[in-house]
Amino acid sequence: MRQIKIAPSIMCADFLHLERDIRRLEKGGAGFFHFDVMDGIFVPNITMGTDILKAVRAITRLPLDAHLMISCPERYIEEFIKAGSNIVCIHAESTVHLDRLLQIIKKSGVKSAVALNPSTPLNCLKYVLDKLDIILIMAVNPGFAGQAFIPSTVEKVRELRLMLQENGAEHIEIEVDGCINDSTIAMLLEAGANIFVGGTSGVFIRGMDISLALLQRYKNARKSLEKICREGDERLKKWWKG
User: Fold this and answer.
1) Residue 209 a catalytic site member
2) Cβ pair 90, 114 in contact under 8 A
3) Most-buried pick from 35, 74, 150, 232 (CB within 10 A)?
């Protein structure tokens, strides 16, 4: 059976008590930690660099996912790998040499991922599927937490899962980032995603313990998956059962 993974977004954590939050998220079953790296150019916000990732690497054994929302990602890929990234995700829109950069990531021995903004079509991935471990679909326009979910994301994920099945690339996992909560997780599971970035909508909820919030998201996601495995599309059921 394939696994549901929820990856808490470190951007949403309390930086004054970061180690405390890491421990609570580990207790809640975090699949890995997601680092939203923004440069203020590719997206309209500035967040974190390699120093934060390196600090977290020193206190956890869980995988670290560097989501590079930056211009010219080729300048920093190796730096994030050296800092301890287990997954490096670049945006298809950020480079004209996507194949070359994915080769660099794969040769380094870490997992490779590509992210697509909401308006970016899936066909840009057709000739790089053999170099991918994860595809990240943005359910919001990247830059800021707390945005509304873009409804067309569900159909985009469904089309992507079908595309992967038709091209013998079913091993590639689909991750979704943006407004992840019980409702959107249920829809996205049914469409074929299995990794979800947990932000302010589902994990870092004001007034709620983040460990308990994460446990609750997993509990409800598993209920949704049980229903899919009973009543869902046969192709999708087969994929989930591995």
Assistant:
1) no
2) yes
3) 35
Q: What is the pLDDT of residues 32-62, one digit of tens each?
A: 999 999 999 999 999 999 999 999 999 999 9
Determine the structural domain holding residue 29 and report its residue range.
5-240
Residue of 21, 39, 65, 177 marked active site: 177
Q: How many whole angstroms separate alpha carbon 44 and alpha carbon 186?
A: 30
Decide if 122 contacts 191 (C-beta within 8 A): no
Amino acid at 183: S
36 is catalytic: yes
- What are the pLDDT digits (tens) for 8-35? 999 999 999 999 999 999 999 999 999 9
User: How many structural domains is the chain composed of?
Assistant: 1
As a whole number of angstroms, the distance between CA 41 and CA 71 comes to 7
Where residue 147 sits, what CATH number does that domain have? Answer: 3.20.20.70
Q: pTM to 2 decimals?
A: 0.96
CA distance 153 to 147: 14
